[in-house]
Amino acid sequence: MLVIDNISKVFNPGTVNEKKALDGMNLTVKDGDFITIVGSNGAGKSTLFNAISGVFLPDSGRILLDDKNITFEPDYKRSKYIGRLFQDPLKGTAPHMTIKENLALAYLRAGETRVFSRISKKDEERFRDKLKMLDMGLEDRMNTQVGTLSGGQRQALTLLMATIVPPRLLLLDEHTAALDPAAAVKIIDLTEKIVAANNTTCLMITHNMHQALRTGNRTLMMADGRIILDLSEEERKAVTIEDLMIRFREGAKQELDDDRILLSD
Questions:
Q1: What is this structure's pTM?
Q2: What's the chain's average pLDDT?
Q3: Is 186 found in the same domain as 223?
Q4: Do residue 72 and residue 97 come from a single domain?
Q5: What is the helix (H) or strand (E) element at residue 50, kind and residue range?
Q6: Cβ-Cβ contacts under 8 Å for 134 (sequence gap 6 or more)
Q7: Cα–Cα distance between 57 and 246 in angstroms, integer?
Q8: pLDDT tens for residues 187-246?
Q9: Is 98 found in the same domain as 20?
Q10: Strand 169-173 and strand 82-85: pairing?
């Protein structure tokens, strides 16, 4: 359902700060895949997400979603069918608006304008039912401003907003990295539950090697703007973190020196 065809991107070309972020990258994603992505800082992981979501145009190559070429489609149009969460919980919500107003915004993003013009009692009941699945008591705080919530609560709400109208593709850019361990586990559990319930195709960047091997059905490792390892669900079963380190050295021709990966558990 998603094809990345020979995508390349160079930032600051012709200057001392020139950086090849994506180097002729190719990737085919099947409908319903849940793919985890690991790699050092600067490997091109977030750049790949920016290309898919339309933050910038690639220098060459194309991006196909459901056989439609979206390479030059603006990001605001892609947001109707591509959901995205960031590492920073503050990025996905409007802090001075209430929880129910933020959920109404999520429907607006997906093209349903009626719910934002007037939030009816029926809408509130729908929001309350969705919030209950988070198991954080937010269904009883719908008139609370989002800026007063904890980081874990805001990220859970952001996850709900990104999936309340199920997207065709969900991009998770280290969406638990800024949370404390307990909140991170809660968000990962919610992520797996929501993705499975909607059979959503999902790409997730993580620095946690254990998480990369046990979450979803496929693991990619990136280095220097390209994929150097692609493990299917069956292949992952016999792979250890030590194996991944060795394969990184072989594929990238360098040591994996990212402390967040080496120290993750």
A1: 0.91
A2: 89
A3: yes
A4: no
A5: helix 45-53
A6: 156, 157, 160, 190
A7: 34
A8: 999 999 999 999 999 999 998 888 899 999 999 999 999 999 999 988 898 888 888 888
A9: no
A10: parallel
